[in-house]
Amino acid sequence: MEYQAVIMAAGRGARMTDLTHDRPKCLLPICNRPMIWFSLKMLENAGFEDVLVIIHEQFKAEIADIPNKYGLKIKLDITCLQKNEDYGTADSLRLIKDKIKTDILVISCDLVCDIPLHKVFDLHRTHQSSVTALFSQTSPEVMLAPAPGPKTKIKQERDLVGLDLQTPRLVFLVSEADLTSENEEELSIRKSVMKHFPQISVQGNLLDAHLYVIKKWVCDYISENRSFTMLKGEVLPHIVRKQFTKSPKRNIDKDLPNADVSVISLNTAKRDIFSFLVGDEEEERIRSYSAWNDHRGDLRGPYQDHAIRCFAYVAKEGFCLRANTLNNYCELNRQVIKRWSTMFPDEEITPPVSKAQVGVDCLIGENTQLSDKCSIKHSIIGQNCNIGDKVRITNCIIMDNVTVMKETTLQGSILMKNSVVENSCDIKDCIVGHTVHSNCKSTNEVLVDADRLLEI
């Protein structure tokens, strides 16, 4: 086993709390499949037979049943957090440290992607990378897609990614949010970076897929340093910076006891990152006999003589998007249903047996009853729903067990599980989570029970 796969699925969906009041983000439906299904399907297609999954304890049974329910062969090794525990991604890796035996692939449960994983593994393996990250080029139109609910100005979160022009080295990484208001229009790059990589392409239009291939020794380093909470915001930028740190000289007398230092202080001293680094002796010996170099223009050896090195695989084709915001969640449903036959050719969609007007880019769940006189366009409807006469539904996401009564118009809205919309309502760009009474007209509202509202 060369790699182990880890799915981070304990996130609470803090940016979409209207949808995650009573369920975890990983179980929100995308095209009538639980969100985590897409990560499991991607791993199974890549050849993984098992996966480590980190979730909250109260949803263990439902998540454990997903492979059996949807015909997946991949086996889940589930690690649970308690109901009120809130772990970051680095904390979660620390929690499963005893299960990690090899290099790992870490995936966020909200990723939907059809980029072949073997291309990321090939890059990681070829260069013996410490960390390899997947980035994709996503159009601003997709990232700024509209979402239901109150109108708010969408602030696009960007990463400034510095890539070497000669190689796929990841040499600089900073979030735009980390730049202060005083210097947000200026970007400072350390001299040590420019010395080794004088030609850097800094890009702000790349999406970090939150898919990382990580060396085993880096996992050990994360486990030892409990100050790390998040992989994306803390660990990855830290490792990128450490590429340009000189490794300490080996002390020949390091194993000899020092009469002036106590045994307790020796055991409790914080270990340097280079003390975790495990090199491949055979690889180093082959490289020492080879004239190959990954760059030109100086006398330094391969990889600038760096023991720690990070790489980025930038996918220029294929689909890659995360459901980390309400806007992206809605856009994922729209985009995936359009691409379903190419992304999942072995997962057939059975069209509904009905005289209703149903568009080609719609999805209707099992046991859903459609009136012959209703019209459905650009929408996804879950299982066990009931759609009444003269109902018009356009660009909506309707979850399971929803009832929409006659002569109602729904546009650009999300109807949550078990919600009811009574007769002659006109709902536009809303989130519905309870019973909406007859003749209601609402636009850009969150129509949920009072106990579902977020208290601040």
SSE order and pairing:
Layout: E1 3-8, E2 29-30, E3 33-34, H1 35-45, E4 50-56, H2 60-64, H3 66-69, E5 75-81, H4 89-95, E6 103-108, E7 111-113, H5 117-126, E8 131-137, H6 140-143, E9 159-164, E10 170-175, H7 191-196, E11 200-203, E12 206-214, H8 216-224, H9 231-242, H10 263-268, H11 281-289, E13 310-315, E14 320-322, H12 326-343, E15 357-358, E16 363-364, E17 369-370, E18 375-377, E19 380-381, E20 386-387, E21 392-394, E22 397-398, E23 403-404, E24 409-411, E25 414-415, E26 420-421, E27 426-428, E28 431-432, E29 435-436, E30 441-443, E31 446-447
Parallel strand pairs: 1-4, 1-6, 4-5, 8-13, 15-18, 16-19, 17-20, 18-21, 19-22, 20-23, 21-24, 22-25, 23-26, 24-27, 25-28, 26-29, 27-30, 28-31
Antiparallel strand pairs: 2-3, 6-12, 7-14, 8-12, 9-10, 9-11
Helix pairs in contact: 4-8
Sum this structure up briefly:
Its main location: cytoplasm. This protein has 456 residues and is α/β, with parallel strands linked by helices.
Task: Walk me through what this model shows.
By secondary structure, this protein is α/β, with parallel strands linked by helices. It is built from twelve helices and 31 strands. This is Translation initiation factor eIF2B subunit gamma.
Rg over CA atoms, rounded to whole Å, is 25 Å
Question: What is the helix tally?
Answer: 12
CATH architecture of the largest domain: Alpha-Beta Complex
Poorly predicted residue ranges: 252-256, 263-268, 452-456
What is the CATH class of the largest domain? Alpha Beta
Number of strands: 31
- What share of the residues does DSSP label as strand, in percent? 15-25%
**Could you name the CATH topology of the largest domain?**
Spore Coat Polysaccharide Biosynthesis Protein SpsA, Chain A
CATH superfamily placement of the largest domain: Spore Coat Polysaccharide Biosynthesis Protein SpsA, Chain A
Distance between the termini: 47 Å
Alpha-beta content class: alpha/beta
Q: How many discrete structural domains?
A: 2
Strand order of the largest sheet: 5-4-1-6-12-8-13
